[in-house]
Amino acid sequence: MDIDGKALAGRIKRDLAKRVKEGIARSGREPQLAVILVGDDPSSVSYVAGKAKACVEVGIRNTTIRLPESITQDELIAEIERLNADPAVDGILVQLPLPRHIRKRQTLAHLDHRKDVDGFHPLNVAAMWQKLPCVEACTPRGIITMLLDNGIRIEGRHAVVVGRSSLVGYPVSKMLLDRNATVTVAHSHTPDLGAITRQADILVVAIGQPHLIKGDMVKEGCVVVDVGISRDPETGKYVGDVDYAEVAPKASYITPVPGGVGPMTIASLMQNTVDCYLDHIDPRTDDDRDIYTQGF
Ligand code: GUN
Predict the structure, then answer these.
(1) What's the CA gap between 200 and 226, in Å, rounded?
(2) DSSP-assigned states of every residue in 250-286
(3) pLDDT grade, residue 295 (50/70/90)?
């Protein structure tokens, strides 16, 4: 059965729109997400447009700041610091990838972690690994939300994550572990990938190789989450890392591409932005969020 990420994302955004209205009534100001786009990579332009559209649906003011490819690291950091200091900005997202001359990690570390809606700041990553309150990375949050919404049990199941990127594979493996799955992380150096993936009750594939996972690499009844999204050069259509035609008949649940994980990443970004906004207008005093911010 397909997991309809688009429909779930729609429900989440409608719920968020209500929470935004209540927030505005309480605080007198709307949430704002600032998106920094460096250069004009067509995929990034299209992703940023998708994020702006979602903001309209939820009632978040979106400011997209387009900067030239030639921008220096210092200029980019100055822009981030300007947004950090702007009290009307609740969330800041730096669209990746950045040009090669910009040091990504150093740049992201300049974000105010309370406005880091991507969950990429080292404090948010560290907090996630310590089970402290944090902003979770969007795609992993979206994956967990999809599993929970479909009543898919995580506890006690063998989850196999293919890919160990800092954006998806690495954080989602930790989030599955926190929900008591037994987690195996496979990657480009794993010999006999099929022998590992065939053990999966839940298989998350985020490696960026179109149609890597074939029908004979999954077991009957497996839950398959396909994070990959590549454009087929012949047909121009989007395809995932999973060979859907072969795998879907064996899977109990599978996320299609497009319409699966993609819309959920954006819905999670909206959740993170609204969470940051609500924290911003109404700072929490009853959690240990301050513990990990002290001393930094
Ligand atoms: N580029 C591809 N995916 C992402 C993402 O989740 N966040 C950002 N900022 N850039 C991306």
Answers:
(1) 14
(2) T-SEE--TTTSHHHHHHHHHHHHHHHHHHHHHS---S
(3) very low
Q: Are 109 and 122 in contact (CB under 8 A)?
A: yes
Please state, in angstroms and rounded to a whole number, the distance separating the CA atoms of residues 55 and 48: 11
Task: Specify whether 118 is catalytic.
Answer: yes
Choose one of 41, 167, 172 to mutate for the ligand 1 pocket test, by most ligand atoms within 8 angstroms of C-beta: 167
Residues 6+ apart with CB under 8 A from 244: 226, 254, 256, 257
Q: Which burial class, exposed, middle or buried, applies to 233 when counting CB atoms under 10 A from its CB (0-12, 13-18, 19+)?
A: exposed
Does ligand 1 lie within 6 Å of residue 135's CB atom? no
Inter-CA distances, 79 with 68, 75, 96, Å: 12, 6, 16
Provide the 3-class DSSP secondary structure of residue 242.
Answer: strand
CA–centroid distance, residue 202 to ligand 1 (Å)? 24
CA–centroid distance, residue 104 to ligand 1 (Å): 12
pLDDT tens-place string over residues 58-102: 999 999 999 999 999 999 999 999 999 999 999 999 999 999 999
**Phi and psi, residue 189, nearest 5°:** -100, 5
Instruction: Spell out the domains of the chain, with CATH numbers in brackets.
Output: 27-117 (3.40.50.10860), 138-260 (3.40.50.720)
**Residue 93 Cβ contacting ligand 1 at under 6 Å:** yes
pLDDT in tens, 247-264: 999 999 999 999 999 999
Active-site pick, 51, 90, 115, 116: 51
Active site residue 116: no
Nearest to 268 by CA among 144, 174, 148, 141: 141
**Which position among 116, 118, 201, 241 bears the catalytic label?**
118
Active site residue 106: no
